[in-house]
Specification:
The protein is an alpha/beta fold. Helix content is about 40%, strand content about 20%. It has helices spanning about 5-15, 30-45, 70-80, 90-95, 105-110, 115, 120-135, 150-160, 190-195, 200-210, 220-235, 255-260; strands at about 1-5, 20-25, 45-50, 85, 140-145, 165-170, 240-245, 265-270, 275-280. A six-stranded parallel beta sheet has the order 1-4-3-2-5-6, sandwiched between helices. A three-stranded antiparallel beta sheet has the order 7-8-9. The protein is globular and about 60 Å long. The termini are far apart. Bound molecules: adenosine monophosphate.
Length: about 280
């Protein structure tokens, strides 16, 4: 595997490749990331991964400085997966000048759910992803459904800018007890780690309640959401949201759409101690 930090050197190495498959990450790689590398291999060649902890997407009180950085272990894992190039730029490589041009996703997608609780987050994500796409120029790029809203926003960005990149979704990989793998799980204490699968259990309960709801209407939907938030809070969580939304655009489902059986997704973010976890479940 070639490890490259310089944009020009990356371009030199990829010259003539028009089927490259790309997996952007922030490192501290786990099975979830590695499953995306395998999916990438099915859709293109060579596979290019990136590791870059993107300052632009962190809020002032978030964990940019303490975000886990485990480069050597990550390199070993990527080599085993047959990744051809690891693009691991420094901040100076990727942002040689202050990044003043930004990609601002539309409010109705970028300022809801995660965007409401992490202002500017998706602006930072879109900006770095567009820049990484411009460096790698992949034919396909793979993103995890674990970050459901992110996947949707990147898809829309690619569509509206007519980027020549197919966005491929990867399923969420979980620990045996149901907890979605995440680099932030490492922040959890032993007690918190034992409690953490309750987030997925809450999503499953919500899904059961929505399925059982014969007379779906938006009023009863919001009651299910509120009850789920309350029961997590009772267990000591600080939930930001549990929201039942339409899969197509993450908007709240109207009565008509609910009755018509539109595909829905339940999205959640909640803090356990100091660690903020997110997850989602499709209905
Ligand atoms: P991150 O390093 O957290 O920015 O994530 C890089 C990519 O891995 C994103 O597309 C995530 O959605 C994806 N990802 C993170 N956790 C998982 C998981 N448990 N299963 C599948 N994909 C994941």
């Amino acid at each position: 595997m070639k490890i490259i930090s310089d944009i020009q050197e990356l371009r030199d190495h990829l010259r003539g490749q028009n089927r490259a498959s790309f997996v952007p990450t922030m490192g501290n790689l786990h099975e979830g990331h590695l499953s995306l590398m395998r999916l990438a291999r099915q859709h293109g060649d060579p596979v290019v991964a990136s590791i870059f902890v993107n300052r632009l997407q962190f809020g002032p009180n978030e964990d940019f400085d303490s975000y886990p950085r485990t480069m050597q272990a990550d390199i070993d894992k990527l080599e085993k997966e047959g990744v051809y190039i690891l693009f691991a730029p420094t901040e100076r490589d990727l942002y040689p000048q202050p990044q003043e041009y930004r990609v601002d996703p539309p409010q109705q997608l970028g300022d809801i759910l995660e965007g409401e609780f992490r202002p500017g987050f998706f602006k930072g994500v879109c900006t770095v992803v567009l820049k990484l796409f411009s460096c790698v120029q992949p034919k396909v790029a793979v993103f995890g459904k674990k970050d459901y809203q992110q996947l949707m926003i990147i898809r829309q960005m690619a569509k509206q800018f007519a980027l020549p990149v197919d966005i491929i979704p990867g399923e969420t990989i979980r620990a045996e007890d149901g907890l979605a793998l995440s680099s932030r799980n490492g922040y959890l204490s032993i007690e918190e780690r034992a409690e953490a699968p309750e987030l997925m259990k809450a999503l499953k309960e919500v899904r059961e309640r929505v399925i059982q709801l014969k007379d779906r209407n938006s009023h009863s939907i919001s009651e299910i959401e509120k009850a789920a938030v309350a029961s997590l809070a009772k267990r000591g969580w600080q939930p930001d949201y549990i929201a039942i939304r339409q899969q197509s655009d993450l908007a709240p489902a109207s009565n008509e759409q609910l009755q018509a059986g539109e595909p829905l997704v339940i999205l959640t973010a909640a803090k356990l101690g100091k660690t903020r976890l997110i997850d989602n479940l499709e209905i």
